[in-house]
Amino acid sequence: MASDRTAMPSIRASLLLACLALAPPAQANIFGTDNRRLITPADHLSAVGLIVCEGTTRRPTATLISVNNRRTSDLIISVAHAFLTRENKPLTSCAFWPEGQADAAVPVVLSILGTHKPTSDWNNDWSVARLTHALPARYQPLSVLNLSNDEALTARAEGEKFMLAGHNGETGPMMLADQCGPRPKINADINRFDPRAYNHDCDMMPGWSGGPFMLTRGHIRYVTAVNATELNALVTRAGEAYDGAYNANTAVRIDGTFLDTINRFAREQPATPY
Questions:
Q1: Which helix (H) or strand (E) holds 167?
Q2: CA-wise closest residue to 132 among 6, 270, 38
Q3: Buried b / exposed e along 225-251 (16+ C-beta atoms within 10 A)
Q4: What kind of fold does domain 11-267 have according to CATH?
Q5: How far apart are CA 102 and CA 212, in angstroms?
Q6: pLDDT tens readout for residues 39-76
Q7: What is the rounded CA–CA span in Å between residue 74 and residue 133?
Q8: Which tens digits make up the pLDDT trace of 14-25?
Q9: 3-state secondary structure of 208
Q10: So where are the chain's domains?
């Protein structure tokens, strides 16, 4: 069962997200120059893939994860709306496609959602899911890291590397925005006083929901959040610059119940690998 905790988003936020559910795939949220590029083998992001469910054409992004240096590649994290219809009804027969490859698909056996109403409770828009079995060793899971808003801003100011992975629209290929990071919140932002989400300036568009917001530290790549919204997509199209009068992109941080759920799944008996 998913927890359905109550948040207090503004009416404006609910309307924006409701409109985003209908946004055409041409829309994007670009900050300055569009620096999205294809993921290559040199990026070592085999952990990133798609969630594909029956009954929908949407294919959100998800990530294989490891916890406390333990290989738990039978676990993926994404957004809650990856497993819900636009009317917030549960989707069934879902699978994870690593690197977006259908021939490597593994079914999802169980998913825990942070909310069943992501359009009105979007700062709890996260999910943790277990696969029926672990993927082969060539798919390397990413570690998770609880990093506060202040810690993330300090890390960027000190030159540490952030990036976001995802894909455009409902098709591949997998892509990366790697010239970006967390942004300070301003009073006009709808999540100004909510610590559960980062604001960020990574270039993206629909399809990047659930994508890992990552930090590279000490040669280890950590997932610190899952990409949730592209609130500026209502007014910005691919190749156009971000309009600062609107809200920044957001990513739901891995902490609280989200992190507790990951750790609980990691303690359970892992799936049998190939």
A1: strand 161-167
A2: 270
A3: bbbbbbbbbbebebeeebeeebbbbbb
A4: Thrombin, subunit H (2.40.10)
A5: 20
A6: 999 999 999 999 999 989 989 999 999 876 666 568 99
A7: 6
A8: 333 333 333 333
A9: coil
A10: 11-267
